[in-house]
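Tutorial handout. Part one gives the primary structure; part two gives the three-dimensional structure as tokens.
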Amino acid sequence: MNTVEVYKLLYKRQVKYSE
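Part two.
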């Protein structure tokens, strides 16, 4: 897994919680 992929997953999770 690339660092960018990890950040993308974290970003998606944060967005999900934000909703």
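Part three, for discussion. DSSP finds one helix and no strands in the chain. The mean pLDDT is 89.
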